[in-house]
Amino acid sequence: MRATLTLESTIYTPRQMQLPDAPQLALAGRSNVGKSSLINALAGRRTLAKTSSTPGKTRSINLYRVTPGDFYLADLPGYGYARASHADRDAWARLIHAYLTDNPHLRALVVLLDSRLAPQQLDMDLVAYAQEHHIPLLPVLTKVDKTSLKERAQVARRWADILGTPEPPLAVSSRTGLGIAHLWRSIERFVLATIDESAP
Ligand SMILES: Nc1nc2c(ncn2[C@@H]2O[C@H](COP(=O)(O)OP(=O)(O)OP(=O)(O)O)[C@@H](O)[C@H]2O)c(=O)[nH]1
Ligand SMILES: [Mg+2]
């Protein structure tokens, strides 16, 4: 898909939460897992979303408008970085909770999972949270340029077990572009499913 992404709003607090009246998918995952890099890879641009090798780069919900298609991708701040204070963690939880619940336009949570790591408790907590709130999941294994096929397959199998899905998470690399076209197709499926549901 040839898409243009435009940063439309930046939300730091639940009070700033003015969401567009259009379908949205949100990218969530641990800090440093590669959410902002994935936004750039999807956009085919290097510097649209700010990335950093230091965890905790994205501190706001950044909403990107996708055209054509007229839907939104939200880059969420990452969780679980060691230097975050309790206050930071509370603020993160409140912001994400406010966004994820009470958002009738949220079509799916794209959960980013590091292909180099065994499933982490915080990631499993996020998955459980989404399942409790009936938010559809689109699981993605990131940074697969850093892992062998064998390592990746092992992590993917463990995640398929945890998620209770026959399909393993989608493998992507923002560095090489592997899996990006496939991810676009999956994203489009979630957006189009809405249109079908709302058809008379
Ligand atoms: N090798 C490799 N490195 C990647 C890939 N994606 C991201 N990175 C690197 O991982 C680091 C973190 O990337 P970000 O995209 O900033 O991560 P984030 O999830 O947005 O992090 P927060 O904003 O802190 O939540 C950066 O140094 C990126 O260059 C990838 O596909 N392959
Ligand atoms: Mg980020």
Quote the average pLDDT.
Answer: 91
- The CATH topology turns out to be Rossmann fold
How far is the first residue's CA from the last residue's CA? 27 Å
Number of domains: 1
CATH superfamily: P-loop containing nucleotide triphosphate hydrolases
How does CATH name the architecture? Answer: 3-Layer(aba) Sandwich
Elements, N to C (H/E) = EEHEEHEHEHEH
Helix/strand structural class:
alpha/beta
Strand order, largest beta sheet: 1-3-4-2-5-6-7
Indicate the overall shape: globular
Topology:
Blueprint: E1 4-11, E2 24-29, H1 35-43, E3 61-67, E4 71-75, H2 86-100, E5 106-114, H3 121-132, E6 137-142, H4 149-163, E7 170-171, H5 180-198
Parallel strand pairs: 2-4, 2-5, 5-6, 6-7
Antiparallel strand pairs: 1-3, 3-4
The protein binds guanosine-5'-triphosphate and magnesium ion (MG).
Residues 29, 31-37, 51-53, 55-58, 77-78, 142-143, 145-146, 173-175 line the site of guanosine-5'-triphosphate.
Polypeptide structure, described:
The protein is α/β, with parallel strands linked by helices and 200 residues long. The chain has a single domain, classed as P-loop containing nucleotide triphosphate hydrolases (Rossmann fold, 3-Layer(aba) Sandwich), CATH 3.40.50. The chain is 35% helix and 22% strand. It has helices at 35-43, 86-100, 121-132, 149-163, 180-198, and strands at 4-11, 24-29, 61-67, 71-75, 106-114, 137-142, 170-171. It has a seven-stranded mixed beta sheet with strand order 1-3-4-2-5-6-7, with helices on both faces. Strand 5 (106-114), helix 3 (121-132) and strand 6 form a beta-alpha-beta unit. The radius of gyration is 16 Å and the shape is globular. The two termini are 27 Å apart. The mean pLDDT is 91. Residues 35-36, 57-58, 75, 78 line the site of magnesium ion (MG).
